[in-house]
Amino acid sequence: MHPKARIHADPVREVDHFDCLPDSLVLLILNKVEDVRSLGRCYAVSKRLCGLVSLVHDVYVKIDRVVAVDGDAEGTLNLSSPKPRSIFSHFLRLMLFTIIKPFHNMRSPNGTARPLFPQLSQHSPAQVLRNFTHVRNLRIELPSGDVGTEEGVLLKWRAEYGSTLENCVILGGTRVDRKPVGGEHEPALEDNGSMPESFYTNGGLKLRVVWTISSLIAASTRHYLLRSIINGHPTLQSLVLTDADGQGTLCMGAKQLEEFRENQLSASACSNRTQVPACNMKLKYAPYVELPGGMALQGATLVAIKPSPEGSNGSHPNRKEAEGFVFGAFDGPFKAAVKTLMKRRTYLLEMNGF
Length: 354
Known about the structure:
alpha/beta
């Protein structure tokens, strides 16, 4: 007898629902991901994702540590180091290590053992980002602020750049703490809206000058380091370089990026940063400013900076635009501090380019 034939049903093929999604929807999802590390991992998943990742419009690069000067990848350095000349090399090493790490051990999606980016360890951050050919909005976050301050001191700045400085606003305070419990703060007798005499004699003005110069150096250093990324991505419409501490933010919009590409960048002769043009400054001061949330800012200072007409490179903003930049520079309680300080008496200062 012949053995009975066994009848088997054809296996049911599982539908890959991801393949059913249109490329436009997948690209929308990838744009929500933004993070360059996660996008780097998606790049290696399949040929389809490999092609779509390079079309992403929004990219976010979070830099969380610095490679030590001696090349030890495990060592870390603080960008707030008081040695200004080391910021440039530290920044490059920091960006190189953090951006390339997720790509370094990836393999080609076709299954071969060939790395996606051969000799990646020799590539610059701009070369790594070159794989994203349609970037419109780029946001980079450093691990810490560039300007070292004492504990309890507030220092925040925001700068807008084209090929040179267009606007900068600095908010500082000697101390941020809780408002006194059981009563309102009584303003000092000498607070009549003017700068107190003690401000000039106890080093208060000198401290604000140091804050201003340090913030401008930090902003111009960041600006100089972005030149190769800007030139390599003609599709860029927005670029923001900030830090995890929320100390400083450099921003460039579509008009500023276009102007950057059209005009030659002026580098400082003494270091690797963009030259700071001659500027006019408006300084406002209040001994005490109450902030929302039960906080208070002592020694509150607001400095609004814009290039003088001879140093503005033809892009001198009007008064309304400059004031709009100042009011929109910071969020939360610090926005309220700016609003309060803008009502104070204005002191005009001038600064030569450096």
